[in-house]
Specification:
Layout lengths: L9 E4 L2 E4 L8 H27 L18 H8 L5 H30 L7 H8 L1 H4 L2 H12 L6 H8 L11 H29 L3 H9 L4 H29 L3 H8 L12 H11 L3 H29 L1
Antiparallel strand pairs: 1-2
Helix pairs in contact: 1-13, 2-13, 3-8, 3-10, 6-11, 8-10, 8-11, 12-13
Length: 315
């Protein structure tokens, strides 16, 4: 008796024979996403690679077309020569980020606590007023603060101080006073987002926790430390991370307040972005500025990876 021949496209699985057909490759997903990938490559990937290439050259206003490869000299100058200004700008950027984050958290938390008082009248009106900085473009808000509040000649701050006998001063010419002024302006711009997150986090807490704590004799401070803060921490953590990133790479506040071309105030404060901008578009040292940009890019990537690792560990 002749044995039945098994087809080539058959699989024997537990004594059962199952036929399969070889699928033809489907190229439609690649064809559909191809234009988008090409566009992303031109807009995102190519500028990064070109900036990386320029960072290894001496490209500047004197060597616009005849620039040469100089290796890691730009990176060595940025990272190991303190007088270059980059390391001091990194230190200032870190201080700027940490101080802004702490001030925003404290102020937003206190305002959100006040907005959630039970017998508070016109609560929605206050919340609407606190959202006003979001409605005004950032550029306009910064210039209003610069010219309307901190101006040394006709600013409101000096006028108010003159009423109580304090001599007028130039708030944006000194490094410390300009830094504090920039923090105040940034607080004004960032408050709506942080207050909105804090307010939502406070409203999500079960009120029975506070009632139980009150029966146990806990005061407001004890309830805040042991109930409020632990309860809102998982909710505000993503907002804190977002704010850290946006504050670290912030450009407009310090530039428009103190370093704007043609309107410099005399304060010598630079974040890494304003320092990179000045080297690229003021002194036209494109090779060195490109190296700074790549270092900033690497710092942000490392920070994002560290943040992602911490969030995974928290879970």
């Amino acid at each position: 008796m002749s044995r039945k021949r098994k087809p080539k496209n058959a699989i024997v699985y537990y004594g059962l024979e199952k036929r399969y057909t070889k699928k033809k490759p489907n190229f439609m997903p690649y064809i559909s996403s191809g234009p988008s990938l090409i566009l992303i490559g031109l807009i995102v990937v190519f500028p990064i690679l070109y900036t990386l290439y320029i960072s290894f050259t001496n490209m500047n206003i004197y060597h616009w077309f005849d620039f040469e490869i100089i290796g890691f000299k730009n990176y060595i100058k940025a990272l190991f020569v303190f007088d270059s200004g980059f390391l001091s700008s990194v230190i200032l950027t870190v201080a700027w980020t940490i101080i802004n984050m702490m001030v925003q958290l404290v102020v937003a938390f206190m305002l959100a606590i006040l907005l959630n008082i039970k017998k508070l009248k016109m609560r929605m009106l206050y919340k609407t007023v606190l959202m006003v900085p979001w409605a005004v473009p950032g550029y306009v808000s910064i210039l209003l603060w610069k010219q309307g509040i901190f101006n040394s000649q006709f600013g409101l701050l000096n006028q108010w101080l003159a009423q109580i006998g304090i001599e007028a001063r130039s708030w944006l010419s000194g490094d410390i006073s300009a830094f504090i002024s920039c923090i105040i302006v940034n607080l004004w711009l960032a408050m709506p987002f942080m207050i909105m997150i804090m307010d939502g986090a406070l409203q999500s807490i079960d009120k029975s926790y506070y009632e139980s704590a009150k029966l146990d004799g806990a005061n407001w401070l004890q309830s805040t430390i042991h109930i409020t803060i632990p309860s809102i921490k998982p909710i505000i953590t993503p907002a804190v991370i977002i704010t850290l990133f946006t504050t670290f790479k912030q450009f407009d506040v310090i530039y428009l307040m103190t370093q704007q071309a043609g309107a410099k105030t005399g304060a010598n404060i630079h974040t890494v972005l304003t320092y990179a901008y000045e080297n690229a578009f003021i002194t036209n040292n494109y090779g060195y500025s490109s190296a700074i940009s790549i270092i900033i890019f690497a710092m942000l990537i490392l920070f994002s990876l560290a943040t992602r690792f911490q969030l995974k560990e928290g879970k």
